[in-house]
Amino acid sequence: MRRLSIFLIAIAAASCTQALKLTTDDSPVVLSHQLINAPNPGTKGSFAVKTLYYGSGTDKRRPEFRDSVTLKTRTVDASPFVTIDPRQAKDREKDWGFGVSKFPLNGRVWYPDGPGPFPLILIVHGNHNPLDYSDPGYGYLGELLASRGFILVSVDENFINGGLRGESDGRAWMLLKHLELWKKWNDSSAGPFAHKVDMHNIGLMGHSRGGEAVGIAASFNRLSHYPDDANVKFNFNFDIKSVFAIAPVDGQYKPAGVPTPIENVNYMVIHGSHDGDVSSFNGLRAFQRIKFTDGKPWFKVAWYVYRANHGQWNTVWGNKDNGPRSGRYLDLRGLLTPEQQRQFSMVTIGGFMEATLHGKSEYLPMFRDHRVIGAWLPKTMYITRFQESGFKPLATFDEDVDVTTGSVPGVTISAESLSTWKENSLNLRDGTGDLLNTNAVTLGWNNHIRGDDTTKLGKPASYTISLSDSLVTSLEVTRESALYLSLAPTDAKPGPRAPARDTTKTADSTKKGGAKPKPPAKKPDAKAAKDTTPVDLSIEVADAAGHTARIPLTHYGKPRRPLEIHILRRADEERQRFPTTYELVLQTYVMPLADFVQVTPQLDVAHLRSMRLVFDRLVAGTVVVDDIGISARAGPFVTLATR
Amino acid sequence: MHSLFKIVLIAIAAAPISLSAQTEDVAPLLVRLPMGARPLAMGNVGVASRDDDVLFYNPAQLTFARGMSASIEQFSSTARTGSLSTVTRFNGGGVAIGASVAQFNVPAGIYPVTREDLVTGGPVNGSDASLLVGFAQTIKSTRIGATAKYVQEAIGSSRNSQALFDVGLGRELFGYSFGLAAQNLGQSFSPVSVPGSPSALTVTHLPFRATLGAAKSHSFDLFDVAATAAVSTLRDGFVIPAGGAELSYSWLDGYVVQFRAGARRPEPGEGPITAGAGLTIDRLTFDYALETLSGSRLAHRIGLRVR
Fold first, then answer.
1. Residues of B in contact with A17 (CB under 8 A)
2. Is B94 exposed, middle or buried (0-12, 13-18, 19+ CB in 10 A)?
3. pLDDT over 70 percentage in chain A
4. Segments forming the whole domain that contains residue A455
């Protein structure tokens, strides 16, 4: 009995959930400002909200799309895009009453009570239990956006859910077929939406696989043929202005085997750190590859939300991201509440759609620096990547393996007293070796000089981007321009640097023969230990005349050490699945040159010569840096600043 | 395939149903004993199981059985049995090997040995052993399997051995997992001369058993519930309904405690009630089962399973 008791106690001890570990919340300080003086976009507007359903009118499983449809719709043949194993196809057809060649176009609509025209937004769910219908779960967004003057359609694609793979192109194509319906209804002379839809301002939103689908839809929208079968022609060409992805996957579908190219749309992606399904910020890959090529004022944002999960963006999905049993292995204790998570989505989706589809530029600064809307955001921590179409790269580290060259001719890079200076690819957290498809530079420094005097500090290490005169001229740099960089500290801390060599002593030429004195044994650098002090550094610009101006990076955002993430209840499973306890998400800093001129009025930005990262505000640390650049069009985004 | 199901179902239904105790002229005893702690705890029903010890109950289920296990049972101070089995994936189906042994003392002049004799004990030493190989495939959604087993019995000075076969079918229907098995097919043991027996040679028959059963499970947040039921018909028409249920509680991924109970129409020597429990830690499961025997006695079985 005693042995049994010991055995049971040992089992009980081993079977405990790991202690809850969260990074200390700094939101009381970081989110202490509210600088945007406009109505909170996450609160309801003044329009009364009406609802209706449209659909086949014959749906076997969904009474709302059978008995309650206001508008009857045709079916579509999705067989070129959605492949189902024949045995599974037979079972599915039996369950749903239709096969892949007759997919219905079902939607639930929230729309403003008014003459319009109103921008149109489609939202589509991702993969989930097909019988736990997902489309009602965005009703809170429907109520919000309709009250603010948008039409929101939650598209039914539950019949694509279940054990399918590589079907995201089918999900995307379905969205475009829905847009065809809306065009028809808008163009008609009668009906609830006759001339009420602003077809020049269309937004697409998607969650999970739906989040990948909206990017694919934006891509397919401009194509004339289906990339995987040119016998299938496309003729869409809708004015899709805005794409919003919620915790998307990326790469499950690749047109012609390459990542989906997305161009010339406003794009925003949000992701939770504690996502128990898509456990890495896959949407960063889509963010990285979006291009702006037509000269119009687009922007893209990637917003990382600490303690948000995968399912709470949808009221049906809940907090068990991998199904009802996943509460056994997912640690749900540290999550934001569903209300907090949805508050965030309402603020950001509302702000994004107001800014991009209603043209309300007063909301633009929130995407460049989330600290300007501290009162609207739930109290947690955020990291934001941002870029607008005026961004001109100076150093993005993707072109070659020469660490001294930049992304364009005229850029040279040098460094002083760095312990670590290397370019490397960025990975996602989930341990599969999945790449972000971008490189960055890692810079480590320790200003302590190695020796007996442990307090001795050397000149601060620095990293300099030098710009040629012709480059600066071609970039048309003015006071209205802004510098960009994206940066994230890591926990690595290099050891003290070697003292500078004393070059005053000369060799004794009279000594003959004898063994040369051995150089002192090189002590290995102290093992990099985890650093917890706040990170800051200075950004210094210099002009051709030698005038310099230096501003701390923290004026433009909070450089955060990696946010600690523990998704699983068992520490051993967590270690096995994830090589790191954090996702390396870089924060974008947009620094108006006007601020530097304010520091040094003589600074002549039109003859800018260099931008330098000076590591003078923290003795030792390591940062990862990417997307250093400059923009002449950041103006609308930098009208507000927190200092 | 559906036709085969129908034929077997009709055969079971048409077999003369005996409500009285069956005649005990069947041998060997080993193949009539329980062979797994988890099925034993649920009325000794294993025809629709997905554990590796389904090798002893319905080879068709080997298509999704996995892992290996071993268990031992003590009937009395002189009678015990043990079994072990292991399954691996093969060609889209499953292949398993297993073995079982039984050791017992029985009264003199008794043959064939019954379950009642196991608990009675006696001066004559006996032992049975078997070696099994099973194979299963899925053809058009129906699982088909077969087991070949070589069984040896030694009681006192008599020795006998024979190759036997089991065949089985399995299919998912109406949300349940169904299994159908016909066990202990083949040629009977050779007649045996038993000292003190009035007959010069004692003829025995194989303990044929046909079983139709089903299982279903459902998962909740931290609990799983499973139930299984089966009807078996023995060689002489004796019908044995049986069933059981299992409640599992998992407070953390990889840690599960299970509670089981079952009931059956007992054969001579058996009692109607079975029960048990299990503890799973990641890939390892410790199982315990008890079965009531005649005369208010209990037999206890413990097992270890690795997935």
1. 252
2. buried
3. 93
4. 392-497+524-637
Q: What CATH architecture applies to the domain B2-306?
A: Beta Barrel (2.40)
Q: Do A569 and B219 touch (CB under 8 A)?
A: no
Question: 10 Å Cβ neighbour count for A149?
Answer: 21
**Calpha distance B96→B65 (Å, rounded):** 9
Judgement on whether residues A215 and A356 belong to the same structural domain of the protein: yes
- Contact yes or no for A320 and B221 at CB 8 A: yes
Give the global pTM.
0.88
Residue among A11, A17, A328 minimizing CB distance to B222: A328
A-to-B residue pairs, Cβ atoms closer than 8 angstroms? 37
Q: Does the distance separating the beta carbons of A328 and B250 come in below 8 Å?
A: yes
CB-side exposure of A207: number of CA atoms within 13 Å?
33
pLDDT tens figures, A468-520:
999 999 999 999 999 999 999 999 999 998 887 766 655 544 444 444 444 44
Measured between alpha carbons, how far is B52 from B148 in angstroms, rounded to an integer?
16
Contacts of B221 in chain A (CB under 8 A): 320, 324-325, 327-328
Containing A207, the helix (H) or strand (E) segment is: strand A197-207
Instruction: Select the residue of A11, A16, A329 nearest B281 (Cβ to Cβ).
Output: A11
Instruction: Look at strands A118-124 and A151-155 and give their pairing.
Output: parallel
| Whether residue A167 sits in one domain with residue A32 | yes
Cis peptide before A117 (omega within 30 of 0): yes
Asked if A100 and A82 count as a contact pair (C-beta separation under 8 A), the reply is yes
In a domain, A552, yes or no: yes
- Domain holding A353: CATH number? 3.40.50.1820
A258-277, pLDDT tens digit by residue?
999 999 999 999 999 999 99
| Amino acid letter, residue B185 | L
Residues of A within 8 A of B252 (CB-CB) are: 15-17, 328-329, 569-570
